[in-house]
Amino acid sequence: MMKKRYLLSLCMAVLLAVELQAKVVLPALLCDNMVVQQNSVVCLWGKSDASVLTVKPSWTEKEYRTDVSGNGSFQLWIETPSAGGPFEIEFNDGEKTTVRNVMAGEVWICAGQSNMDMPMSGYPGQPVNGALEAVVEAKEYPVHVFMVNRKLSKQTEEQCEGKWEAPSAESVMHSSATAYFFAKNLQKSLQVPVGIIVSAWGGTSILSWMSEKSVNTLPSDVTKACVERDSREQNLPGRLFNAMIHPLKNYTAKGFIWYQGEHNLQEHLTYDVMMKTMVDEWRNSWNDKKNEMPFYFVQIAPYRYFNNSMEIQRPLIVEAQKRALELIPNSGMATTTDIGEEFCIHPAKKPVVGLRLAACALAGTYHVKGLCTSDIKIEEIKPLDNKMILKFNSDFRSVYPARMKGFEIAGKDRKFYPAEAVFKNGTIEVRSDSVAHPEAVRYAFRNYVEADMKNVMGVAASSFRTDNWNE
C-alpha cells in the first residue's frame, strides 16, 4: 500500500512538473488591460518549454501557430482589428494562458525626464492643474497606462517591469500627467482606446536614453563634459536605454512623445544632433526603416535656470530644439513659451502641454484638418525710422493680442531694452524709446519672461531673435 501511494505521488509530481514546465511565460508588457495597435500587425513574444505554441485572439476565428526556438523563446506576428474591445488573447502550449481585457487602439511610447515623469498627483508643493477632474473622470476615457519601473543597466535588457492599468482613479493619479493629458485628448478626438507606455526618470541626460554605441558617434569632448558634470549612474551613456527603452522594442506602437532637455542646457550647440541620434536609434530599434513612427516633443519650460531669469540658456536650447525639427523627419514640437513658472521647473499647466502634443499628433499623424500647430517663422525684417517691422510666415495665420509682451530691441551697442510690440496689418512693429536706431529684435529670449504671442488657435510662438550675435 505504501509503495502504491509513493508511486502515485511520484506520478502526480512528474505530471505537475511537466505542466508547470509547459506554461507560457509572457513579458510584463503582454498582460491584462494591454492595448494593441489597431489595424496593424503586432508582435507577441515570450518563453515556453513546449516545442509548438498556438495563439488565438478573440477578435478573429484565425488561430496562429509558431515553433518555439531551442532556447525556449518564441515570437510571432498577428493581425489586429479596428479599435474596440475588450478582447482576449489565448496562448496554448499544452496549457492555456489567457490575457484579458485587451483593447485595440492607438499606442504611444512616452519618455523623458521629470516633466514627463511628473505624476498627476504632482510633486510636494508642485500641483498639476486639472488633476482632480482627470482623476474623477478617469473611467469615462479608455486610456490604459503602462508605467515602466525605474531600472539601470550596463547591458541591453530584454525585459522591463511594470503592468498595464485599466482606467481608474488610482491609475490616473499615478500616471504621467503630460502623457495622460496627451492620451486623453487623442482619445476624445479619435474616439478610440489609447495606450501609453511611459518610460521616464527625472534629472536625466539625453545621453542615457541612447546606447553607448550611439553616444560614441557624438563629439567626444561634448559627451565627456556632459558626463563629468553629472556622473550619477542614471546619466551615464546607455543606462536608461538599456533597461527602459530597449525592452520595449518588440511592442508595436504608433509613435513617440518626448519631454526632456533641462539637464542638457549646456549642450545647446549640439543638442539637435543628440536628439536626431537618439530618434534614429529608437526608430531602428522598432525596425522603422522609413522613419514612419512620428516623434513629437516639448520645448523645455521657461524657468529661472541657474537662478537667473535674465540669462538666455533656455532660448538657446529652444533654438537647438527647433533645429532638430529640420533634422528629424516626421517630427513636431509643442511650444511652452507662455506656460512656465519663474520659481518652479515643473509647471502646473500640464493639460496645455498634453493638448499641444495631441494637436501635433492629430495634425501630423491622424491628418485632422484645420489645426494650426506650426511655429512662427520670420520671413522679412525691415527697419523703419525708430522701429523694426517683422513679417511672419502665413501658416502661422495671425497673432494676438494686439500689443504683446516679451519683446526686446537693441541698436549697434547690442544692449537690449524692453520694447513695445504692436500687431498691425499682418506685421509686428517693435520699438523702444531707449533705442533710436534699432538693429535687432528678440522675443521671449530670456530664461523666464512673460510672453503672450500666440496664433489664432492659442498655440504659443517660440522664443526667437533676428540677430546672430555671439553671447
Task: Describe what this molecule looks like in 3D.
Residues 1-20 have low confidence and may be disordered. Strands 1, 3, 4, 6, 7, 8, 9, 10, 11, 12 and 13 form an eleven-stranded mixed sheet that branches. The chain has a five-stranded antiparallel sheet with strand order 14-15-20-19-16, with no helix packed on it. The termini are far apart. Helix content is 25%, strand content 25%. It is an alpha/beta fold and 471 residues long. It is elongated. α9 crosses α10 (313-327). The chain has helices at residues 2-22, 114-117, 131-136, 169-174, 177-190, 212-215, 220-229, 239-245, 271-285, 313-327, 350-364, and strands at residues 35-37, 41-47, 52-57, 64-67, 73-79, 84-92, 96-112, 143-147, 164-165, 194-200, 255-259, 295-298, 331-334, 378-384, 387-392, 403-404, 407-410, 416-418, 420-424, 427-431, 440-443, 464-465. It contains eleven helices and 22 strands. It folds into three domains: 18-103, Immunoglobulins (Immunoglobulin-like, Sandwich); 104-364, SGNH hydrolase (Rossmann fold), CATH 3.40.50; 378-465, no CATH class.
